[in-house]
Design brief:
With 505 residues, this protein is α/β, with parallel strands linked by helices. It is built from 16 helices and 18 strands. It starts with 9 loop residues before the first strand and ends in an 11-residue tail after the last helix.
Length: 505
Amino acid sequence: MYGLIPLPLQIHERKGRLALPANPLIEAAPGLEAERDLLQGWLRSALDKAPPTAVDSVPGPAIRLELDPSVGASEAYALSIGPDAVLLRGADAAGVARGAATLYQLALSEGRELPCLDIADAPRFAWRGFMLDCARAFYRVEFLERLIDLAALHKLNVFHWHLSDDQAWRLDLPGLPELAAQGGRRLDRRFNAVRYREGSYTMADVRRLVAYAAARHMEVVPEIDVPGHSSALLASHPELWCDADHSDRRFEPEDRFGVFDGVLCAGRNESYELLGSVFKEMSGLFPSAYVHAGGDEVPKASWLSCDHCRKAMKEEGLRDEGGALDPERLQAYFMDRVAKSLSALGKRMIGWDEVVDGACSKDVLIMAWRSPEHGYKAAEQGYDVVMCPQTKSCYLDHKHLDLFEEPGQLGVCTVRDSYAFDPAPAWLPDASKDRIRGGQANLWSELMYFGRQAEYMLYPRLCAIAEALWTPSGLKDFSDFSLRMDTHERRLDALGVNRYRGALE
C-alpha cells in the first residue's frame, strides 16, 4: 500500500488527498519539539523539488503532533491524513518519530499531495538494528549520519558501531591516546608504493553522531572487540600479550583479514585494568545502556601455554568435565570480569554467541551470529538474545546473488533470504521467544573500502530486514513486498542511494 516499507500494522484508505504547502507548518505538543524539527527537515528535503500547489501561500498548521499512550506500547503511532490536516499521535516521542518516518516516505513518493489514510502501527521487536564495521574500513562521520538517517526512514532504532578489530582501533580517547595513535593506522599493501590507511573518531565526533542518532530515536551501541581480534590494541600495549614475558614481538594493525593470535592475556590483571580505563572513558560518551565487548573467534592455544592463564584457570577451577584446564571457561571468566566492570559503570555487556560456550553470566546480552540455532540455544538457557545469523539472513557483506560479477564474500544472501529472516519463529517455545529482543543486519567491511560500496551492500536488503523486524510475521508476503519495493526504490533513488538493482530473488 503506497509502497510503505516496513508494512504498517493497519492501513485504511480514505477519500481525497491532502495538498501540502512547500514548507508545511507543524504544531507540536510540549515535549515534542525535537520530533517537530526532525519532521520539518525531512519534509523540506522531500518537498523541495516537488511541483508547486495552490496551497503554497495558505497560512496555518497542516500537521499536528501529539502524545497519546493509548495508541499502544513504545514506538507505536497512529497517523490520520485528512483532506485538511494531519494528526500524528505517538505512544511516546519515539512513536512520533516512527510516524514521522511514514510521512517522510509518503512525501518522497507522492510529493505535495498525500493520500488520505488512517494508519495504526507498532513494532514487532524492540531491537531493530544494523551494524557497520568501521575498523576494517574507516567511514567519515558525515557518511555515518547519512546511514543513520536512512535507517530511521526504515524505522530501525539501533546503530551498532564496531570500533576495534585486528585491523584498527578507531576510538581516540584523551586519557589513552596511544590506542588510536598506534592502532588507527595500518599499511595497505594493495599499492606498489608504501601507503597507509588511517582514521579515528574523536570525542567530538562521537558526541556529534550520538546526538544525531538520538534526534531520530536511534541508540548508538559501541563495540570494542576483546579478547580476540586485538592486534590493533596490542600495537600500543604488547605487554598484554600472553607471551610478552618471553618475547619482544611488536604488533601492528593487520592488513590481512582472518583470525590472528593477537589475543589479550586472560591471566594478567593489567588486561582488565586497561579495559576498565577504556570503558570508563567511553561511558561518558555513549549514553546507551549497552556496550558490546566482542568475544568472538578467540584462538585459545596461547592461553593453554601461558603461565598466567594456566594459573588463573587453576586458581578459579576452570576445568572441563574431564578435569582438564578449560580455555572456554577461561573466556567466560574473562568476559564476566569485563561485564562486572561495565556494570559498575551502569552498562550492560553484549557478547557474540561464543561467550555462551563457557557459560558466561546470564546478565550478558547475546548476539547470535554463527547460526539461528546458537540464538535459540542461548534463549533456552536463559540469556536475552539479539538475532543476526550469518546463514542467509543478516550478513550483508555476502553477495546479493551467486554471480561472479557481484561484490561480496563468504556466501550469498538474496533479498528474499533477508526478508525470510524471523528472529523468533512460531515453533519456538514461548519462554524462548520472550528472551529474543529482536535482530539486526551486520555489514563487515573487509572488502567495503568506500561508503558507496557499503550502501550497495546494504540496500535493498536492509529494507527487507527492517520489515522482518517491524511487521508481524502473519502480514509478511514477499510478493507484496516486491511490489511495494517498486515505489520504495524510487524513494531510494531520490535520496541518491547507491543500491543493488538486480533481481530481488
